[in-house]
Design brief:
- It is built from 19 helices and 20 strands.
- It is of the alpha/beta class.
- It folds into three domains: 101 residues, Rossmann fold; 218 residues, Mur-like, catalytic domain (UDP-N-acetylmuramoyl-L-alanine:D-glutamate ligase); 134 residues, Protein-Tyrosine Phosphatase, Chain A (Alpha-Beta Complex).
- Keywords: ATP-binding, Cell cycle, Cell division, Cell shape, Cell wall biogenesis/degradation, Cytoplasm, Ligase, Nucleotide-binding, Peptidoglycan synthesis.
- It holds the Pfam family Mur_ligase_C.
Length: 473
């Protein structure tokens, strides 16, 4: 759908946007441009609603400091909620009781976009894979715009995108839960682990939210799935689009896998994608594993998924090859920060769950001083104990989960374990413990929201603290 068609869809409609974050401000502007009567409501006080005055200047009503009892009423046509707002808050409950549609800005962006959308989701690896796909498409001359959960709201890019371009969107389960008609032309599910259960309440709801990525796809669309995940294989029975699989363990009939330390891509021999790639060999050798610039064994999953998506989108194999030989990773994901006195410091602040942190811990053979902690989501971290026994020499922890992680360190037999107040304190403590040849790794295994606004803020503070070590005695 185009902006012109969107004007017809939303002109004169009463829309309430809940949550004045980046995505809330972006979708409010988009809907206003389509002629909607938009009210933005945020419970934060006025002085914390940075976008409020600018939105008011554009003719948008903004209410801060509370959720008025009548903010959602029978005259409201649709509620667009910030993905992180739980469905238990009063305005959402009111909308549900009145039968008013509740969506996230991803749904609005899709409705008002007339270019293909590639959607990427998963418990871990979304940002790396999304960035990698964007680089591959750019190298292949396909003019992608990377947006979504990765930083720029999808609805903000809807006003900028032009025909001939492609939107490449990182999508969270929070965003996907609030979709109805959303239909990406290529949809990729990397993996599903226990995560965000404080929000979803059950794993079934979490998986269902992820699977909405495929719900509206048709036979001409493409789904990219992890063959090594039983959950992904279970979902395949209900997917109507053509499936490309990726696997780090087995050779598969169509998709990407590893054979003799080399990445192989096999295209389908039937269906719409087979016709699109009919000039390519049925089997393509991509790169040897020792040519990959992206570190970490866990990243092989992300690389295979990106190869499938980029090939399905039309990127040529040479463009994919060039990127795989040069792309070294993204900020806050196993990011090398510095080497000081023979100790290497890595920022993995984006590891917001135990599975992601586990992957980081298994990426090194050297002794690790592990910095972890953050928001308590009810996880017990028992699965971390065997990994801690392998090569973690010390644990430094902070935040709401500190006592749990200290208990697991004791269970793992780690003598050097200490609680500190902040990430900055953790870096100082790590310096006193680490010796030449060690790794200091920030890989929190927890979200940041108990102490920091985002994992990015947490990662930046870690890096700043490390760089200050260079100048301190």
């Amino acid at each position: 759908m185009s902006i012109e068609e969107g004007r017809a869809l939303y002109k004169g409609k009463q829309v309430v946007v809940l949550g004045l974050a980046k995505s809330g401000a972006a979708v409010a502007r988009l809907l206003k441009a389509c002629g909607a009567d938009v009210t933005v409501n945020d419970k934060k006080p006025e002085n914390e609603c940075e976008e409020a005055e600018a939105l008011r200047a554009g003719g948008i009503t903004v209410i801060c400091g509370e959720h008025p009892d009548d903010i959602v009423n029978p005259s409201v046509d649709v509620v667009v909620k910030n993905p992180g707002i739980p469905y238990t808050v009063a305005p959402i409950q009111a909308a549900q009781s009145l039968g008013i549609p509740i969506v996230t800005e991803v749904e609005i962006a899709y409705e008002l976009s007339d270019v293909p959308i590639i959607g990427i989701t998963g418990s871990n690896g979304k940002t790396t894979t999304t960035t990698l796909i964007g680089r591959m498409l750019e190298e292949g001359g396909l003019h992608p715009i990377v947006a979504g959960n990765i930083g720029t709201p999808l609805s903000e890019q809807t006003l900028q995108v032009r025909k001939g371009q492609t939107l490449v969107a990182e999508l969270s389960s929070f965003q996907l839960k609030g979709t109805r008609r959303f239909r990406p032309s290529i949809a990729c599910l990397l993996n599903v682990y226990d995560a965000h259960l404080d929000y979803h309440k059950t794993k079934e709801d979490y998986v269902h939210s992820k699977s909405k990525l495929f719900k509206n796809q048709e036979e001409t669309d493409v789904a990219v799935l992890n063959y090594d995940s039983q959950i992904c294989r279970n979902l395949a029975d209900d997917i109507r689009s053509q499936i490309l699989w990726f696997s780090t363990k087995e050779e598969i009939e169509q998709g990407a896998f590893v054979r003799s330390s080399e990445i192989i891509f096999k295209r389908p021999v039937t269906g719409a994608l087979a016709e699109k790639l009919d000039e390519a060999p049925e089997e393509e050798r991509v790169v040897r594993l020792d040519e990959l610039a992206l570190p970490g064994a866990h990243n092989l999953e992300n690389i295979l998924a990106a190869v499938c998506v980029a090939r399905a989108a039309g990127a040529d194999i040479e463009a994919i090859r060039r990127i795989l030989r040069t792309f070294a990773g993204v900020e806050h994901r196993l990011e090398f920060v510095a080497e000081i006195e023979g100790v290497k410091y890595y920022n993995d602040s984006k590891a917001t769950n135990p599975e992601a942190a586990s992957r980081a811990l298994t990426s090194f053979s050297a002794p690790i001083v592990w910095i972890a902690g953050g928001l308590d989501r009810g996880i017990d971290f028992k699965e971390m104990v065997p990994l801690m026994r392998q090569n973690v020499k010390a644990v430094i922890t902070y935040g709401e989960t500190a006592e749990k992680l200290l208990a697991r360190a004791e269970e793992a037999g780690i003598i050097r374990a200490k609680r500190v107040d902040t990430v900055t304190d953790a870096v100082a403590e790590a310096r006193s413990i680490a010796r030449e040849g060690d790794i200091v790794l920030l890989s929190p295994a927890c979200a940041s929201w108990d102490m920091y606004k985002s994992f990015e803020e947490r990662g930046v503070l870690f890096k700043q603290s490390v760089h200050k070590l260079k100048t301190s005695p």
